[in-house]
Input
Amino acid sequence: MSERAVVLFSGGLDSTTLLYSLRAEGFEVLPLVVNYGQKHVQEMRSASRIAEALSVPLTRALLNAALQPIFAGAESSQVGSRVEVPKGHYESESMKLTIVPNRNMLLIAVAGAFAVSRKANVVAYAAHAGDHAIYPDCRQEFVESCARTLHIATDVELLAPFAGISKTEIVRRGAKLQVPFEFTYSCYEGGLAHCGLCGTCFERREAFRDAGVPDPTEYAPIALKEI
Output
């Protein structure tokens, strides 16, 4: 019997590649998508499309109403409406405005409970090396500390196999696994097409370029220029 892995799944490029990677390694994958009130809820539609293409069941946790008062005062462009989505490169100081307070600890805790209920022995999330400078809950020390806590609480193992690699390398791995990149969604603006100008769109465009992999993403016309 194969091991079961709960995959924190957004429908984005990174978590989709993680889903395909774990499946290729022989895991029975249980993708879990969480609505925590994020502006880019379009990604949940992508998650449904990808899960359907893989013929795997997708579980949706609709926590947006419960978390709305928690995030109400957050200086974050991704929850609520107080802060606009910053444009430009991910390394820019303004990209700190995209932080959702303690998001990954919340999501990992929910995924751990789900793993126990589904008799899964692994929770996996797709933090990568490019996230570390901006997001505290993607750093290696967070992964290690959270892994210890999760194991104490649930006996479930936390995996973050991309924590030491770049998004460019994730694209390369995804290409080898035949990930349907055209189904994935990354934009912080949340429109039908990627804006091409926010930090995560910049990072996505650079990753495809640097990996030498054709980028099938639909970007807004204003963004169709060299990066």
In short: The domain at 4-223 is CATH 3.40.50.620 (Rossmann fold). The CA atoms of residues 79 and 210 lie 31 Å apart. The first strand starts at residue 4 and ends at 8.
